Amino acid sequence: MKLIIKYSRHGAVKYISHLDMQRTFGRAVRRAGLPAEYSQGFNPHIIMSFASPLSVGYETEGDYLELSLAREMDPRRVKEALNAVLPHELRVLDAHEAAGTKKLMAQNESAAYRIKIHFKNEGDCDKIRNAAEKLRTAQEYAAKDRKGRELDIRPLILEIGMDGDEVRLLLKNASDGALNPAVAANALLLEAGVDAEYSVCRTECYTVENGKRIPFQEYSF
């Protein structure tokens, strides 16, 4: 039995690495007494994989993992059992059985983010709004990635806009191209001439089928 599990992380948990996230969920599965399926070989491990690694320091309201169980179990009981042993800042939001054999990670196409900028000065929000509009309408836009390399980020930004004082982004997140939201956020701040810190929250992961973008929550794996 394969389950698709949607989870959130907030607070101090956002500072743990992807490897530690894997370990945390692995320990939770064992502590909850779930009948996990294990790999074969000299070093068996729980068969579990994550849709997309999340950078240290980012929160999420819509990340996913797939978990294989050795026998049938009510997904609602799995959700309850995991939440009973996980840190309170790490929550399972939904669990449902996968209908087919599609691999979670292979379906990644894009991810949505909410960027909360902690403005210092009056008028900075309008500057960011103007910068976001300039980036939205640009044919190409050069920016530096987190390693200092220059690249055209415009093809990797599928949607960009403002919701109140927050920036909303839909970014490419696939094997043939992906953009870290920090690169887009830093480009906006530089374009706007604004000096401010910001926080990042992933809100959903998406796939594409028959030309239609579908959130993982609604996709039949």
UniProtKB/TrEMBL annotation:
> DUF2344 domain: which residues?
2-181
Q: Which domain of life is it from?
A: Bacteria
Can you name this protein? Radical SAM-linked protein
